[in-house]
Amino acid sequence: MGLLEDVLGHVQQQLGPAAGATHPDLVSGVLQMLGASGGLGSLVQQFEQAGLGHLVQGWISNGPNPPITAAQLQQVLGSGQLAGLASKLGLSPDVLTQQLSRVLPHVVDGLTPNGQIPQGDLMGQAMGMLKKLL
To answer: How far apart are CA 91 and CA 87, in angstroms?
Structure first.
């Protein structure tokens, strides 16, 4: 289970006490969303198309993660994608977007530990682990 545990550990470490205020399945939901939408490369494209590529590039690169607002997430991901994830997790779209704005930078950062999007089947491995857990 290495990758999922690594990402979960990274997110919890980065959020500290705020991790307890986050839906426990949010990280796995984000990984599922990434897997279903084409992975990190697709997410980067969505951010670039919305004019916010600098944010996601900041999460990928080494160094501090720039923050993202709930409104910016809405702009990038759109209401359909956010509503689907909110429904799956049993959250309102507003609560999901608030939590996701804290978690997504750390998930992307955890998936890119060397400051770049990994080559190969990283998302496939993550999705395989999630399917075993769910």
So the answer is: 6
Statement: residue 28 has pLDDT above 60: yes
d(CA 127, CA 35): 7
The predicted structure's pLDDT at residue 74:
94
Name, in order, each residue with C-beta under 8 angstroms of 50's C-beta and a sequence gap of 6 or more.
72, 75, 76
Contact 34, 124 (CB under 8 A): no
User: Hey, what domains does the chain have and what are their CATH numbers?
Assistant: 2-11+23-133 (1.10.10.690)
Q: Could you report the per-residue pLDDT of 111-127, keeping only the tens digit for each? A: 888 888 877 545 554 55
